[in-house]
Design goal:
270 residues, alpha+beta, six-stranded antiparallel β-sheet, 8 helices, 6 strands, 24% strand
């Protein structure tokens, strides 16, 4: 079975995935539309086997091939044999362990590139979101992390000459009234030696003070950690052909004990 599947994967990587030129007949456009993963919910449904593209193969191969169609073809452009083996092992795991993706399970999060206006100038930042349960059968997306140069508050070098002197308590901490005069770049001189500001707090503070406004969103990447032994990302590919829409852009074999570190790395300030 594995040999048959690998052979079909090899063929599929060079044939159906390449359909899509100009002036195509309606039947081909319909084929492209059927294969295109148009929404992330559709990606989940196909991954779970709840929806499928009709392929003319034995019933035992329809599920594996539908999972294959969820991969970006460019993953096979280099190191093709090793990638085919990795994908085959992943597909085997998903099918044998009956893994499924679910909005509510909390095993995934979104990485969203944002175009914004910061103090009247155009800038960019990245936000991280995950689903949160509000009450029974009700969920929402919440922002759990933020990164970007505009959120980095630590100065290149702290000026110890700006310390609040040890006897300042005797004059009712008058030095605090000079903070605004010293400029925003010096504010962390008044923090503890080991204090490291986090990007998420800075993001909320800047939006609250009207210094930051998000205009549009750009690149979106979804990170899925549900499948045992793997982490994979999903991105949207807008191109002609059957291999388009929301597809797996990266597949990373990963031990379960490493997944928390993978998750945490996106929530730390750069």
């Amino acid at each position: 079975m594995k040999r048959i599947l690998l052979s079909l994967i090899s063929v599929l990587c060079v044939c159906p995935l390449c359909i899509g030129q100009t002036a195509l007949p309606d039947s081909v456009w319909q084929t492209e539309f059927n294969f295109r993963v148009k929404q992330l919910d559709e990606f989940m449904a196909r991954f779970n086997g709840e929806e499928a593209v009709d392929v003319n193969v034995a019933d035992s191969l329809k599920r594996p091939l539908n999972l294959l169609y969820l991969f970006d073809r460019e993953l096979f452009a280099s190191n093709r044999d090793s990638m085919l083996q990795k994908v085959n092992a992943f597909i085997d795991t998903v099918i044998t362990q009956r893994n499924a993706l679910c909005y509510e399970d909390g095993g995934w999060f979104a990485e969203v590139g944002c175009n914004c206006i910061y103090k009247g100038k155009k800038d960019t930042l990245t936000l991280y979101l995950k689903p949160e349960k509000i009450e029974e059968f009700q969920y929402r997306w919440v922002v759990i992390g933020a990164k970007g140069k505009l959120l980095q508050l630590i100065p290149a070098k702290r000026n110890r000459g700006l310390d609040i002197l040890p006897n300042n308590h005797e004059v009712s901490f008058r030095a605090l009234s000079k903070i605004a005069q010293l400029g925003s770049n010096n504010i962390l001189n008044y923090a503890e030696r080991d204090y490291v500001p986090d990007g998420l707090s800075a993001f909320y503070a800047l939006v609250y003070s009207d210094a930051l406004k998000i205009e549009t969103t750009g690149q979106i990447t979804y990170h899925f950690l549900e499948v045992p032994g793997y982490v994979f990302t999903v991105e949207r590919f807008n191109r002609k052909g059957t291999n388009t829409g929301w597809l797996i852009s990266r597949l990373i074999p990963m031990h379960e004990t490493e997944k928390q570190a993978y998750y945490n790395q996106f929530l730390k300030t750069e």
